Each structure stands twice: as C-alpha cells, then as structure tokens.
Amino acid sequence: MHAAGHTGPCHCAKVMFSMLLDKFEPMSRVQAELAALGIKPFGAVTEQLLSATEGVVEGRRVILAGTNNYLGLSFDPRCIAAAQAAAARWGTGTTGSRMANGTFAEHLALEAELADLYRVPHAMVFTTGYAATQGLCATLAGPGDVILLDADSHASIYGGAQLSGAEVIRFKHSDPADLEKRLRRLGERVANTLIVVEGIYSMLGDTAPMREIAALKQEYGGLLLVDEAHSLGVLGDQGEGAAVAAGVGAAVDFFVGTFSKSLGATGGFCASPHAELEAIRFSTRAYIFTASASPSVVASTRAALAIMRTEPGCAHASGTTPGNSTTGSRRWAFGSARTRARWSPSPSRIATRPSPGGANCWKPASM
Ligand SMILES: Cc1ncc(COP(=O)(O)O)c(C=O)c1O
C-alpha cells in the first residue's frame, strides 16, 4: 500500500548508476533523528483556524506564534467577499503567464494601486513574494555587477543574487559602518552596484536602519532595493513599510514585497520610480515564465491593501510579531516592547472583535 492510498503496482524507480541522491543521505538521517524525538519540522498541520492567531494543531488549541498574518486580514469578510466575487467572475485561475493570456484587468488595477501606495509611476505584480525578490535581484544585476546585501538576508535575495551572476558581497547585518566600508572599497564599481536590504528582517524581526542606509546610497551611489515583505502593513502611515516610515522613500529605487503576510494572500510586487521597470517586466524570468496570480488572490489582495491604507489601527491588531516563526515565537515568548504593550498571552481568552482602527481586524479579546 502506498502512502497516498493506491493499491496498484509500485512505480518506485530503481536507481542503478546515479549518485545524485546520495547527498540527501545526511538530511534523511537528521530527519530520522528528529522524528525519533517526535519533532516534525513540516508536520505542524493546522486542523482548524480559530482566529488569525489561534488554531487547532494535533487536536490541541494553540497560539499560532509563527504566523505572518500581521493584520489578521485573511479572514476579513471584505477580503473573502472580494475573492469569492472574483472567482465567480473570472474563474479559479488565469491558466497562463502575464505575457500570454494571464494579464487580467485585476492585475493592472492592483499594479496601479501599488504604484499609488509608493507614489511612483511603475509597479509589477508577481505570483509569489519569493519570485518578486528573486526575480528582481537576478534581473537587475549581472556578470560584472555587484550585489551588496545584508548578511541576514532572506533566501529569495540570496537565491536571486546567485542567479544574477553578479559578484555578491555581504555587509554585517544592519551595520551602516560596514556597508560604508564596502561601498568605499568598491570605488567606481558602485555605479554597477545594487544594495539590498529588508525593511524588517525576516530572520531576526528587527528594523533596518533605513535613514543611514539611504544616506549612504545617496552619498556613494548605486541602486537601492528594499524588501518590505515583513514591514508592509506594519510600518508607515499607510503601511508602506520601513523606508517610507523612516522618511527616506525617495531614496529607494525598488520597493519589493509580498501579499502573503500582512495582506493575508499570496503574491508579490515591485514598485519603482524608474521607467526601466517596464523593460525589466520583459526581462524577468520569474515574471514571464510562470502563471499569473489567480483572480481571487488578486481581488482579496486589493481589498486588503485598501483596508491597510485606510485603517491604520489594523497594523497592531493581530498580536503577531514580524519576523520568521522561530524568531516570532522567541520574541513572543520574551515579549518585544510592542508585544508586551499590546498582547497578554491568555490563549483561552483569544477571540475576535473589531479593532478601534477598523472593522473586523482580529485581536485578542483582552485588548
Ligand atoms: C524578506 C522576504 N522576502 C520574500 C519572501 C517570500 O515571500 P512569499 O513567502 O510570499 O513568497 C519572504 C517570506 O518569508 C521574506 O521574508
């Protein structure tokens, strides 16, 4: 009997002369050791969601400390209604890439709204946040160029940098002095350099020193890409992210982000003041050679974006902390300044009610 429940003959390939799979042996051993300890890194299955921050896992009611649902919008009735209406009107998928049949009016409307959010003329919508960051990094720089990135960057940044063929130089995490040292060393090559930072770091949950980074970019040159994946909806008057919140949005060449965290959907974007973004659209493999985001996802994202922009109170409503799950859990456990101020961990009392800043944002009942 196969795992999927099939009873027919096994189609398991017998590997005779390949060593390609040998490298997975150490990882298989680690997995077996973890399994023996009852640890299943991919095994936390959410059986039921009770709110944006609470669910049922293995029959137990737990706090979802690792969720990125910062605004709790994945259950907002307005987002759900928008998704339902779009699915009914446009169907469940676009079945094609943006360059072929996959550009629907909804995609263009979302791009216009993102451009408006950042007060820039150009924006692109990607199918995932990973594709946006990886695609931009891989396309903007090439052999002979330099990507100067924060050492604690997300895998999508490293992945894109590697694909680009550019020289990749890391500077110490959130350390403007180290960034400056490396910019100085680059000399004239700065003209061919892409500086990449995150607004709030996915690995650590800390905010980038945007003012200092922007000042260095202005002084030395190069282009600046800010991945606002975790800061979108969390920082800035309208949730624009760390750069705009720090008052240095004008120094940013490429705002990149995801719809999978604060906006409760999936997908990604790039917004830019540069007209060349339209040429980049034609040059980014992760944009061209993949199916475009499904209509329901785009529609719920548009609804969430509108809520994020007009109901700033949502930004502190869900009780989740930006950063990856491990960090999120750790910060939740010890209590960051904001978490301590806004959240008291009493799982049995978690419920939903409208936040002061906007209707239907999830929040603990005790707040
Ligand atoms: C900084 C950063 N960029 C990009 C991504 C990828 O976004 P998505 O998961 O929506 O593809 C993530 C996801 O965690 C991230 O933290």
Question: How would you sum up this structure, described in words?
Answer:
By secondary structure, the protein is α/β, with parallel strands linked by helices. It has a domain of 235 residues: Type I PLP-dependent aspartate aminotransferase-like (Major domain) (Aspartate Aminotransferase, domain 2, 3-Layer(aba) Sandwich), CATH 3.40.640.10. The chain has 13 helices and ten strands. A seven-stranded mixed β-sheet has the order 4-10-9-8-7-5-6, with helices on both faces. A three-stranded antiparallel β-sheet has the order 1-2-3, with no helix packed on it. Strand 2 and strand 3 form a beta hairpin. The longest helix is centred in the last third of the chain and has 16 residues. 46% of the residues are buried. Bound molecules: pyridoxal-5'-phosphate (PLP).
Which short descriptors sum up this protein?
single chain; about 375 residues; Aspartate Aminotransferase, domain 2; three-stranded antiparallel β-sheet; 13 helices; globular; disordered C terminus; binds pyridoxal-5'-phosphate
H/I helix tally: 13
* Cofactors and ligands: pyridoxal-5'-phosphate
- Identify the overall geometry: globular
Largest sheet: 7 strands, mixed
CATH topology grouping of the domain at 75-309: Aspartate Aminotransferase, domain 2
Q: Secondary-structure map with pairings?
A:
Blueprint: H1 25-36, E1 46-51, E2 54-57, E3 60-63, H2 77-90, H3 105-117, E4 122-126, H4 129-140, E5 146-150, H5 155-164, E6 167-171, H6 176-186, E7 193-198, H7 210-220, E8 223-227, H8 242-245, E9 254-258, E10 268-272, H9 277-281, H10 285-288, H11 295-310, H12 325-334, H13 337-342
Parallel strand pairs: 5-6, 5-7, 7-8, 8-9
Antiparallel strand pairs: 1-2, 2-3, 4-10, 9-10
Helix pairs in contact: 2-11, 3-11, 4-5, 6-7
Bound molecules: pyridoxal-5'-phosphate.
